[in-house]
Specification:
Layout: H1 14-28, E1 32-43, E2 49-54, E3 59-64, H2 66-70, E4 81-91, E5 96-106, H3 109-125, E6 143-148, H4 153-165, E7 169-174, H5 182-195, E8 204-209, H6 223-231, E9 236-240, H7 248-252, E10 255-256, H8 260-267, H9 271-303, H10 308-344, H11 348-394, H12 396-401, E11 406-409, H13 418-422, E12 427-431, E13 434-438
Parallel strand pairs: 3-5, 6-7, 6-8, 8-9, 9-10
Antiparallel strand pairs: 1-2, 1-4, 2-3, 4-5, 11-12, 12-13
Amino acid sequence: MSDSPPSNDHALSVSELAASLKRTIETNYDHVVVRGELGRVTIAKSGHMYADLKDDKAVLNTIMWRGQVERLPFRPEEGLEVIATGRLSTYEGRSAYQLIASSMRPAGAGALMQLLEERKKKLAAEGLFDPRHKKPLPYMPRTIGVVTSPTGAVIRDILHRIRERFPVRVIVWPALVQGEQAAAQVTAGIRGFNAMTGPDRPDVLIVARGGGSIEDLWPFNEEIVVRAAFESEIPLISAVGHETDTTLIDYVSDRRAPTPTGAAEIAVPVRTELLLSTGESGERLKRALTRALSRSRDKLAAARLPRPEMLLQPARQRLDFASANLPKAALALTQKARLKLSRLQLSPALLKSEIRTSRQRLRDVSVRARPALMRLIEKRAAALNTEAKMLETLSYQATLKRGYALVRGTDGRLIRSADIAAVTDEFKVSFADGDVAAAPLGSAPSKPKPPPRKPGQQGSLF
């Protein structure tokens, strides 16, 4: 038996105690405002956010459901100090209490500004803000793509100003410009326009929204938006907020506009000004052509060109002189030709004398040519004998006459060393007066085979 005294206390189950604690906490802490630093931040596939809200002494598990997460004006990140509003509850499965947050905001603009500066330094170090990457804007675009909210005053202002200045085709990519989903939709708009092909592809992009607080403009500081703007092949104009508002997309865009209306003014020229400028240029061209024509007319008048009849008079005079001198020149030419022909006529006696003279010159040449030819032949023969003697001196036969011998194998190749000769069965030694067969020491050269016997001939028995 137990020695403990009986008790009237009612024993609670674990579930009953957990439910009681849950009711107590939710009743007493149905509305709390907590300030702390975000630690671990996880966005589940369902869209719910699970995070740690902490300070230097404690950690509070925090949950925010998908509907509230989508309305956040910024993206929760680890290290960001925030103020969360909600209620406390418990999770019986782990005996833990947690904050069910209904809203969350940065703990003052200073926290967001610090995060903005850190992100700005990081992207600048990667070269995303380098002016060398800026692309020039087209002077007269045919199509303009606008990424903004289709229901706000921003798109109306842009369309109105483009219509006033220079009407062109405008394609609007609808996107949220505030809240948790804004950054993803703006990024999709920029990349969607760049993926277009054909005549519908814009020549310039405008990313725009109206003014607001730093929390309202925060989607345009998100890294995915900045990188999409940097990677855009289409020139991009940023028009986010008022002139005093600055976001990271302003640093990476090709041009920054102070307002959405200013972006429309940057994107297109003024049509009336172009028409006026074209008209003025046409008038200046007409005046320049008139002055040039007048100067040319003055120069032509100052030249005082003579009449065609006066230009032909010297030529006619030269023709008359040539016609008068032609008969005389022809007669003189004929006489000169006759004189030359008479000089060329030869008599038979003169021709015979020339023949005898030529024969005598030929005989003289023949007499002189014979001794010269003999001397040339003797000289060439002496040179040939000298070269023959030199060839004989340098030939290997002369070397053999001096007592040397030439060793070759049965295939005719030279044997240049004793090692090769030692492993050769038979070789031939050439002297100056003939060849002999030989073999290495220790082996006898093979004897020549006897000639075959004739039929009926008896061989020797010895």
